[in-house]
């Protein structure tokens, strides 16, 4: 006699059909993303009436905290050398107390932030090899469109650093 009970799929068939369904969904999603515009914005970042500005945010990855007390020298390139604009110390939130450039001071050009990480780690009492691997860390960037806001998040430790353009 033949059984009238429907056959249930095996676990293997069930898993394979789930994988196939997932792969087809990913393929469709990837195709949809490729057809859209790039994720990167090409226009200025609007801050609900706030003027364009340059700001910085520093994180000490060695201690896992804001880089409170880090001294930074800010300079502008004049075509031959970097000319000091000002020096400042990072506050308890890991930021400068005010924008580095804003309003009339926010101009196109090449700039440098010089982070005194050797002094910072010495002041924190970090037990590191001497001499330090990193001492003064230069972060160089340029402003080309004065209608855009630029925020520079900077992460650093005794052996590495990274920064990017934020918004």
Automatic annotation (TrEMBL):
The keyword Hydrolase applies. One of its GO terms (molecular function) is hydrolase activity. Residues 1-34 form the signal peptide. PROSITE patterns: TAT (PS51318). Residues 54-166 form the Transthyretin/hydroxyisourate hydrolase domain. Keywords: Hydrolase, Signal. Pfam families: Transthyretin. PANTHER family: 5-HYDROXYISOURATE HYDROLASE (PTHR10395:SF7), URICASE AND TRANSTHYRETIN-RELATED (PTHR10395). This is Hydroxyisourate hydrolase.
């Amino acid at each position: 006699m033949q059984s009238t009970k429907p056959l249930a799929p095996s676990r293997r068939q069930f898993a394979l059909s789930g994988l196939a369904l997932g792969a087809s969904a990913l393929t469709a999603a990837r195709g949809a993303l490729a057809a859209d515009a790039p994720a990167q914005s090409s226009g200025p970042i609007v801050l609900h009436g706030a003027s364009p500005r340059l700001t910085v945010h520093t994180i000490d990855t060695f201690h896992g905290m804001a880089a409170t007390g880090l001294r930074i020298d800010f300079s502008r390139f004049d075509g031959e050398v970097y000319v000091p604009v000002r020096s400042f110390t990072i506050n308890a939130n890991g930021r400068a107390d005010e924008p580095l450039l804003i309003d009339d001071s926010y101009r196109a050009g090449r700039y440098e932030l010089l982070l005194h990480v050797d002094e910072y780690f010495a002041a924190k009492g970090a037990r590191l090899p001497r001499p330090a691997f990193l001492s003064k860390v230069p972060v160089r960037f340029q402003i080309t469109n004065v209608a855009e806001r630029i925020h520079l998040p900077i992460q650093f430790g005794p052996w590495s650093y990274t920064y990017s353009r934020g918004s």
